[in-house]
Design goal:
This protein has about 120 residues and is mainly alpha-helical. It is built from 3 helices and no strands. It starts with a helix and ends in a 15-residue tail after the last helix. The relative contact order is 0.07. The protein binds zinc ion (ZN).
């Protein structure tokens, strides 16, 4: 094995010529700039949803020794946590929109959408 591929301080991604990348990773990442070190993963709710949908049970490294049932349970729990997180984000977004709508009404600005502002809350 090449020295570069054993050095955890280096990017180590596989290059087109088959060698390991010897550039230093971006701070806070394991990969260099050329190999996705700046990638922040899914950011939007749509992106996170898309990502959860393509989760494959037991794909993660270190889960090989688990039974298919265990892997499925783990993936299901993970998905559940993600869905809960997304629901919280959506509720947060809705609250922010309601707040903005109330602000617009209170300050006499026209509403962006035609729906009436919430009377409760
Ligand atoms: Zn690299």
């Amino acid at each position: 094995m090449k020295r570069s591929s054993m050095d955890s301080r280096l990017c180590g991604a596989r290059c087109r010529d088959g060698s390991s990348c010897t550039r230093f990773p971006v701070a806070g990442s394991r990969r260099c700039r050329q190999h996705g070190g700046l990638n922040t993963g899914p950011v939007t709710i749509e992106g996170k949803l898309k990502c959860s949908r393509s989760l494959i049970p037991g794909r993660k490294v270190g889960t090989k020794l688990r039974t298919p049932e265990q892997r499925e349970a783990i993936a299901a729990a993970k998905l559940q946590r993600r869905v809960a997180w997304m629901e919280r984000q959506i509720r947060k977004q809705v609250r922010a929109m309601e707040w903005e709508r109330r602000q617009r009404v209170a300050n006499g600005f026209p509403l962006i959408d035609k729906t009436e502002p919430d009377k409760e809350n």
